[in-house]
Amino acid sequence: MGLKSEFKNIKGTRDILPEEAIRWKKVEDVIRKKMESYNFQEVRFPAFEATDLFRKSTGESTDIVKKEMFTFEDMGGRSLTLKPEGTPSVVRMYLQHGLFNRGALQKFYYIERMFRQERPQKGRYREFRQFGAEVIGSVSAETDAELVKSALDVFKELNIKGIELNINSIGCPRCRKDFVKELKSFLKGKLNGLCEDCNRRYAENPMRILDCKIDRTKLKDAPVPSDFLCDECREHFEDFKKRLDFLKIKFNIDSRLVRGLDYYTKTVFEFVNTSLGSQNELGGGGRYDELIKFMGGEDTPASGYAVGIDRMMLLLPGKDEKISVDVYLVTFDVESDLAGFEILNELRERGFSCDKDPMRRSVKAQFREADRQNAKWVIIIGENEIKRGVVQLKNMNKGKQKEIPMEIDKIVKELKC
RNA sequence: GUGAGUGUAGCUCAAGUGGUUAGAGCACUGGACUGUGGCUCCAGAGGUUGGGGGUUCGAAUCCCCUCAUUCACCCCA
After folding, report:
1. In the structure, how far is the CA atom of residue A258 from the C1' atom of nucleotide B6, in angstroms?
2. Which positions on chain B have an atom < 7 Å from some protein CB?
3. Which pLDDT tens digit goes with each residue over A40-86?
4. CA separation, residue A11 to residues A14, A119, A259, A357 (Å)
5. What ipTM score was computed for the predicted complex, to two decimals?
6. Looking at the 3D structure of chain A, how many domains does it have?
7. Is the residue at A321 inside a domain?
């Protein structure tokens, strides 16, 4: 014991041990059930894609593409990247398989691992899991509200409290043009008073300056996108808010919420929780009406979001579950061991989880193991039982033991009580 | 990428200003109880004190470097 391996998990990754895995399974079950109740269809996609997919869709000016991607070359010299987010892959999948031929409206969800090369901290890992949903083919604000609702449903089902919803509209390329013009003229004289990042954003993606935490107060009077919405975008935003009201979903309008991805249009939103510490954003999303056309498809509206499951798990009430097994077998000699083994196999076929000691250790050791495994029942077989054609069935919680015939149906009947 | 904190057994933590062989609880293995778990008692196993270098008669302790890790900044999920 205690031989130390020279290997350990890589920075920003983590192992999920059995007790925690039980929690994960429950959470994933809830996600699947809820998503499917909205008729989102599950899709799964590769761990890595062509680097250009993210460059083009996530956007060159984003932090993700600029400094957070795990990028490597395959033996043919192609540049590949571990997926940092899901939307580009879903869009790629949609276009590649001609899923528009299945109907104008497609609704997907996914549970996938994502990879971003950032400095890890509480609630932030380099390998993390997200669930997300994407609706392709609907311009309707109803869709945006439905997406929001589906995420809130998951939080609710998991008993996660204290989630706040922030929303905003950042308009379409047409109205954004006016806004950016106005923003730039507002910023012109102030640039050398602003931080380095803001100066870079001024050239690359001025809207994101609104996001800046350092210069917040200096930018208090800066124009915001929602003041420049065209009629169509304004109506869409109004409709979105009305839909949320109708669903009795509370929200804050954050006129400076712009989000970090290049492809968003109109609706943007995020879920936050203040008790999470600095990584308080649980999930977010928005509409991306231009992306599919930009990626080579027909002009198709779309909307979606993603939620960090690891982060969500930090808010999950309750403790890790104990592992447990239905039946543990205790035997005394070779003959009873074989008889018991046969019973175990039959019980396994009938759906019971069963186990036994493979090393023929002492009875005491076998019982200790049964206890450690949280066995509900122990089946005891020895020389006497074999001779008389019976087994002892012990209820480990009550500590009571009962003798019953060595017949599978009779044993099963007892186990079901 | 920047800043701060922390590294002692599988886990949680001890070892006054440097001083024999680095300890305890939990967990693990075995025994007391050779056909019955949890409780109790006894015993055993488990350490390059993260690694390297330096100061010193002597370093877990002081200094330097390095690595890991945590939190925060930035940004995101």
Report:
1. 37
2. 1-3, 9-10, 28-31, 33-38, 45-48, 68-77
3. 999 999 999 999 999 999 999 899 999 999 999 999 999 999 999 99
4. 8, 9, 27, 37
5. 0.87
6. 2
7. no
